[in-house]
Specification:
The chain has about 475 residues and is an alpha+beta fold. A hairpin with a 4-residue loop joins strand 16 and strand 17.
């Protein structure tokens, strides 16, 4: 049965207010605990921001931690009407002379015209498409699927290495079948197997392809080019294997031009500047949340947190760490003109020093950032290039939390796990405190109710006594 609270009906005491204020005092520890929970939640939020910034930074360093994605090559063609060129990281600097003798051409065959592309007027049966090597594809044509459009569809779904289409020349019999090879082979179409006349009684009709003597015909031919004095034949006008790491797109035959290949120092400079910017984003965020101002006696949410200090220490230590095994003159970021501000730890780039390094010893700069990455997977971290060293270090910070005692647990996720555990523990403490306070409140309500009842009885007895005495 629930306690019935009678608030001051007899005594005039506001027991509800008294009990409420007493409970407010009892809940003082709870308010402290909730404030601590909020502090922990704020710390989690800031750690998540730092983790996001670190992952963005990691994406940058992963983007150029191997030689293949660090290097960029720049190609310049003297006459872009002859060919265009592009280079990959496997290309080497140099100048090449390229003469385009003939362009690769796909075979094109055109038929005589018919009056309709939809009328079912062609014989049925099967026909063959045979390439230069003797490979034959058989195409079947059934009744009801024997229009010119049906033949085009049958060719395109046959698996033969050709495409078919229809053109309209505007004449009385305008619709012509066009068959084009997908490569430089020459194909023979043999329609003699279409032996059954159409059911409509229109008479026997086969597609008739115009031969090499017709202006519409184009033979399939390979591209011929001369690279640095060496003649070669290719099956496409897109040539990927004539010059290492260079793709040539041939445009005009009978012409000669030069292709110059050079290291793209501008693209690499942009990558290094992006690296510096991403690093500074992390350091600025860490500084903001860990700073303490002695004048205002205010501190960042993560001020004094050991995890933040570890993040700062690990990142900053990499700035002066040398790369073991590099062969060039550059063994650290500082040797490239990338230095750290002594006050806030942010990086800055000496653009003159970096430009000089890239111009005079590009391969050594590339080695500093990419040494051994992609070649070996279990070396000590200082035997990897700068980019991979940062990648491995960041990985140790942002990897997920797997479980207690797991060595691969990420530093930040482990800290967040600890903070969430603390928040959960406080929830348990608050629940226990609330349970005690509810019991205390019930007891006080009962005691005040009993007091009101007792006082009421005493007043009744006193009044009765006074009435009795007044009658004597």
């Amino acid at each position: 049965m629930a306690n019935i609270s009678i608030s001051g009906l007899v005594t005039g005491l506001d027991s509800s207010s008294i009990i409420s204020q007493l409970m407010q005092l009892e809940r003082a520890p709870e308010r402290i605990m909730k404030a601590k929970q909020q502090k922990f939640q704020n710390q989690i939020s800031e750690f998540q921001k730092i983790e996001t910034a670190l992952k963005s930074f990691q994406k940058v360093v992963k983007g150029f931690n191997t030689l293949g994605n660090f290097k960029s090559m720049q190609t310049t063609v003297a006459d872009n009407s002859v060919l265009t060129a592009s280079g990959s990281s496997t290309a080497t600097p140099g100048t090449h002379t390229v003469q385009v003798t003939t362009l690769a051409k796909n075979q094109r065959q055109v038929s005589t015209g018919v009056a309709s592309q939809t009328d079912k007027v062609f014989n049925t049966g099967s026909f063959t498409i045979t390439d230069s090597a003797g490979k034959t594809t058989t195409v079947s044509i059934a009744e009801g699927q024997n229009s010119l459009g049906d033949i085009v569809s049958a060719i395109n779904t046959s698996g033969a290495n050709v495409t078919a289409s229809i053109i309209n020349d505007g004449s009385a019999t305008p619709y012509r079948l066009v068959v084009t090879g997908k490569d430089t082979n020459n194909y023979t179409l043999n329609f003699s197997g279409l032996t059954t006349p159409p059911a409509g009684g229109t008479g026997s009709l086969l597609p008739t392809m115009l031969g090499p003597s017709d202006p519409s015909y184009q033979a399939g031919t390979a591209a011929t080019l001369v690279v640095d004095g060496i003649t070669m034949t290719k099956t496409s006008n897109t040539v990927t294997d004539a010059i290492q790491g260079i793709t040539l797109n041939l445009l005009k035959e009978g012409s000669t031009t030069t292709v110059n290949v050079a290291n793209d120092t501008s693209a690499v400079t942009n990558k290094i500047n992006e690296f510096v910017s991403a690093y500074n984003d992390v350091i600025n965020l860490v500084n903001k949340q860990s700073i303490y101002n002695p004048d205002t006696k205010t501190a960042g949410v993560l001020s004094g947190d050991s995890t933040v200090r570890t993040i700062q220490s690990k990142l900053q230590s990499l700035l002066s760490t040398t790369v073991s095994g590099v062969t060039g003159p550059y063994t650290s970021l500082a040797s490239l003109g990338i230095t750290s501000d002594k006050k806030d730890g942010t990086l800055s780039v000496d653009s003159t020093a970096l430009s000089s390094a890239l111009s005079t010893n590009f391969e050594a700069v590339a080695d500093l950032f990419t040494h051994n990455t992609g070649t070996y997977t279990t070396l000590p971290s200082n035997q990897y290039g700068i980019a991979q060293q940062f990648n491995l270090t960041i990985d140790s910070m942002v990897s997920p939390y797997i479980g207690t005692g797991v060595s691969t647990n990420g530093l930040i996720e482990t800290r967040i796990k600890g903070l969430n555990t603390s928040i959960s523990d406080i929830d348990d403490q608050i629940d226990s405190l609330e349970s005690r306070i509810e019991k205390m409140q019930s007891n006080l309500q009962l005691q005040f109710t009993n007091m009101e009842t007792t006082v009421s009885k005493l007043q009744t007895q006193g009044n009765s006594l006074l009435t009795y005495l007044s009658k004597l």
